[in-house]
Please model this.
Amino acid sequence: MVAAARFLAADASRVIAQTSAESDPNVFDAINWNLLLEAVPILVLAYFLARFSSTLLTGLADRFVAARFRVTVLIPVFKLAIYGTAVYLAFSILFDLTENQLLALSGVAGAAVGFGLKDLLADLVGGLALVVEQPYQIGDKVAIGEYYGEVVDIGLRSTSLVTPNDNLVTVPNYLFFNESIANGNAGAAEMLITVEFYVDPESDAARARELVEEAMLTSQYVYVTDDLPHEVLLDDDIHYRKITGKAYVNDLRNEFPFRTDVTKRALAAFDREGIESPKVPSGVAGEIDHPGVD
Model:
């Protein structure tokens, strides 16, 4: 690959030299360096304009919760339009290339993209695909490969997530083509939350199920309608009974407060009613998650 890259670079250099010798001046002579001061401010202005529009729309989305996701979906569209226009204007000012010069420069650029910028190009193409297909929006809770969190920004090169540990993770956009994407709310404010409990087989599993349901329905974060029902499942195993509660929260940002609230009150009710945790043999202990953890 290195030898091929050197060959392409040498070939492109010969094309440029031959073109210059025949009729046209050097490619870089076509750049009016006096106009550089006009082009650079355009790119700088585009950067700050994109940041301002993103901040403004994010603030509006937080203020008008009901329309949050209809507002945040505009952020990547605005950024794409701003940066695309800025690059077009800057190149229009700087370059006035002939056909031969444009062909030679395209060969060099193609080699550079092919061997040195392929990852960046993949990220940019992924960013364009995200804007068009919208598998997730700013504000969604998503899992992209090994990463999970709330989408806080969608750029042309990467997507930013805030994880449950409050870490900001930058995910390259090319993963859109290679990884499965799980969206927990798909642009809605409500989100389905699952809470799991394990009880001893000798305890009253039916009563434990009732206590979990009561803890969910009395939570300040729960949101239940005809279209968004709740559910409590009871599964049987040799070593334990598994109770799975499923309900929607009124705002996806209440995912973890809801889990904590339901878990704390359900476990307290278990203690009052003598419902015990399973006594699992050491050989199978690893098969059981901690109570209340999905």
